[in-house]
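Below is how a single chain appears once it has passed through the pipeline. First comes the sequence as given, then the structure the pipeline wrote out for it. We keep one example in the README because the format questions we get most often are answered faster by looking than by reading.
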Amino acid sequence: MTAWTSGELDKIGTAEELELTPLRRDGTPRNPVTIWVVRVGDDLYVRSWRGRAGAWFRAARVRREGHIPAGGLKKGVAFADDPELHEQIDGTYRTKFRRYGARYVDPMVGPDARAATIKLGPR
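Resulting structure:
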């Protein structure tokens, strides 16, 4: 996976939400889904609050490619599994989205969402 530029990381990492559009097997776009994005170091992560059962998550694991518009950018993205930083990712979700309260944040740091963590990379 290639690296994000610092400008891309700043724009996408500070955006609260992005419209993630996974690609189907044939390369056509699925319907976009609005999701929270977090930045940990020089990496960007998203999670499915429905865990591995989320339709967008299942689609993302098939082709491992999609598109995002966030922070004024439109980028093609690659999806990778990265389960090693869960504590840091959890902490970032708690900090960035604390104003929404436990009702929304707790599911994003729970075991189902943790199991559905995807690292976003540019393509």
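Residues 86-96 form the longest helix (11 residues).

See the next section for the split statistics.
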